[in-house]
């Protein structure tokens, strides 16, 4: 049995529009499925758990953005479906970082074909576990990006840009809003038991995929199935130096900048003198301190073919 979870509000209504196209196609194909749309935050988690436990679905298709995917992943895993139920996605959000990382087509019909095909690649990927007992599938960031994620999700221009198909620009606009007043700080980063005191820190992002914020290649080397977490730290007392880094993140050219440092490990902790906002898969996720660890092969997903 196939289960479909729809967030009709994702992408400022793109979720609903996408579902109407998908529903029509499923009817024409006479595909058997169950479905439910969300109506409040956290409901995707509940629906996913219900589909795994009570309905015994073997494939869940998410129509929504990265935040909805995050809820569904937590629901599948908590219900015991990490290996028995495969996650498929039809992207309909603002950033759609998960879809980009896993070669899922932007076109809804192509993504549906991938989700339904019996020959599609099913792979197991890692997850990020937090000390609050939640999971992330893409990334968790502390500092500048935590604030950017919070303000972007609250911004009226996010809705407008989503309607125009330019949702990823919302993150860039918020970055420019925040940049002029954001204050860097000292953090203490611990990677597999080794502690680093890092002054003038703007952000510390722990990544499971290369992308975040729509199209920024924050950790170009990150792999979702290598059993490790990749951490990038941007630190500098110079505001203008950081500005040049932020522009270069879109192309991934920041990797050789002296103000950018990368770490790799299985267990990560971040402390700061004052609490820093956190984001998990683009959604607000509390404040530092935070402890993270890798969950190897934590969930089964349907991925697109590798790019040629």
UniProtKB/TrEMBL annotation:
GO terms for biological process: phospholipid biosynthetic process. GO terms for molecular function: ATP binding; kinase activity; metal ion binding. It comes from the Bacteria. SUPFAM superfamilies: NAD kinase/diacylglycerol kinase-like (SSF111331). Keywords: ATP-binding, Kinase, Lipid biosynthesis, Lipid metabolism, Magnesium, Metal-binding, Nucleotide-binding, Phospholipid biosynthesis, Phospholipid metabolism, Transferase. One of its GO terms (cellular component) is plasma membrane. Belongs to the diacylglycerol/lipid kinase family. NCBIfam families: YegS/Rv2252/BmrU family lipid kinase (TIGR00147). This is Diacylglycerol kinase family lipid kinase. It comes from Paenibacillus psychroresistens.
């Amino acid at each position: 049995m196939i289960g479909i979870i729809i967030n009709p509000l994702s992408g400022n209504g793109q979720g609903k529009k996408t579902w109407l196209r998908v529903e029509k196609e499923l009817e024409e194909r006479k595909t058997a499925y169950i479905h439910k749309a969300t109506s409040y935050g956290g409901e995707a988690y509940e629906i996913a758990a219900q589909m795994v436990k009570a309905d015994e679905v073997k494939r869940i298709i998410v129509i929504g953005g990265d935040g909805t995917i995050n809820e569904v992943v937590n629901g599948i895993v908590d219900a015991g479906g990490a290996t028995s139920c495969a996650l498929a996605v039809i992207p309909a959000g603002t950033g759609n970082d998960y879809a980009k990382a896993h070669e899922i087509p932007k076109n809804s019909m192509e993504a549906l074909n991938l989700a339904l095909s019996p020959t599609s690649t099913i792979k197991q990927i890692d997850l990020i576990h937090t000390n609050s007992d939640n999971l992330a599938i893409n990334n968790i960031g502390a500092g500048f990006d935590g604030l950017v994620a919070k303000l972007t999700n609250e911004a009226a221009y996010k809705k407008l840009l989503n309607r125009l198909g330019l949702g990823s620009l919302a993150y860039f606009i918020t970055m420019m809003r925040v940049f002029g007043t954001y204050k860097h700080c000292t953090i203490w980063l611990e990677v597999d038991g080794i502690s680093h005191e890092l002054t003038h820190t703007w952000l510390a992002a722990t990544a499971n995929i290369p992308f975040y914020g729509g199209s920024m290649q924050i950790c170009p080397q990150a792999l979702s199935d290598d059993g490790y977490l990749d951490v990038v730290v941007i630190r500098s007392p110079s505001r203008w130096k950081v500005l040049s880094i932020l522009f270069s993140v879109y192309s991934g050219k920041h990797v050789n900048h002296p103000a950018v440092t990368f770490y790799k490990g299985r267990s990560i902790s971040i402390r700061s003198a004052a609490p820093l906002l956190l984001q998990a898969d683009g959604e607000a996720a509390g404040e530092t301190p935070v402890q993270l660890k890798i969950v190897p092969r934590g969930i089964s997903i349907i991925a697109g073919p590798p790019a040629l």
